[in-house]
Amino acid sequence: MGNVASNRKARPWYSVLYIQVLIAVVVGCVIGALFPKTGMALKPLGDSFVALIRMMIAPVIFCVIVQGIASMSDLKKVGTIGVKTLVYFEIVSTLALIIGILVAVAFHPGYGLNIDPATLDPKAASAFATRAKESGFIPFLVGFLPKTYIGALAEGEVPQVLLISILTGFAIANMGEVGLRALKGIEIANKVVFGIVRIVVRAAPLGALGGMAFTVGSYGVASLTNLLKLMGTFYLSSFLFVVAVLGTIAHFAGFSIFRFLAYIKDELLIVLGTSSSETVLPDMMRKLEALGAPRTIVGLVFPTGYVFNTDGTNIYLTLSAIFLAQATNTHLSMGQIAGILLFALVASKGGSGVTGTGFVTLAAILAAVPSIPVQSLALLVGIEKFMSECRALTNVVGNGVATLVVSRWQGELDVVNMRRVMESRTENGTPDSA
Length: 434
Prior knowledge:
Elements: H1 2-9, H2 17-34, H3 36-41, H4 43-70, H5 76-107, H6 126-132, H7 137-142, H8 149-155, H9 158-173, H10 176-200, H11 204-219, H12 228-253, H13 257-263, H14 265-274, H15 281-290, H16 295-308, H17 311-327, H18 334-347, H19 357-368, H20 384-409, H21 415-428
């Protein structure tokens, strides 16, 4: 054990993944700022890394959930975990929506812009508005149904993969001896899948460099000055939500939110560089298991959170809707604000971590609240990439905390061991992911 510890401490600093990603983010920003055309040309690096990770999302979710459910002797326990998870998601999601409203009303980020909607280009956000027409509660439910079993895995839509994974897990659990042999095959496939993920994640620095270089090169900082107040308000809101709301929840669950953030710093930097929470789904699940959360709970809670618990997106929805009303001098009554809250509570479901999902959902909310001009969405197009990064970061933290909380709620989390792992990994690095 002593030799292992000394080897970890002796690892060169430049071989640690989060340091590599951090350097890549800085270099990407510099390239984008000084050489915008070069920065935009590096976009394929970021897109390719996201694509590589995204191709593994469906296999990871499928193997983890099927193995978790099929290996449980008490299938009623799965239903209990599911109910507790959904209750937690609804409570925290509602708090996130309310925080967005309270911050918007308190800080007035849109006041003083005095935007005339007639002067805005409606084409700038027309594509998002068109997609928003297809959203709603019924389309959301229908979206869980794949055209074929294999099609769900091939297309990689999170809700559809969740459905076939749960059904497959229950089917194998009821197959007796044949089911045990099938479970062995799933366990082997799971090891192969995570082996591939460990290889792919080594390319994270390149993905982060390409993503940040493109973002800064495309938009620049100078062109965003008139919307900096909204961006600052959103980042502040998300920070307060993580520290105050999730921090309080984490405290009662037996761990420090700051220790947890340090523990997942690698993943947060990757999300920052790629603007997508999907890129860290496999590695986050592995890290949560390393903290002592049972595989069954990790497999059910964390991926499901990508559909039902998008805290960062929720803050963005209500904050941005009221910002646009303020920017266009549109007065909203308390009833209209309550309507935005209720509609957002339903419309926010289904965001699977894909970049741009929050913007589409916001378009759907504006369509449901006619008093706010839909064309005002054009104001946010230029900063969508920067807002997306904060949404993704908050979503990842929220779902990580949710997984640990449900594990503690079930009495299946060794808190002492969890704290020990967090402290040892944050002090000595996270060698498994490096």
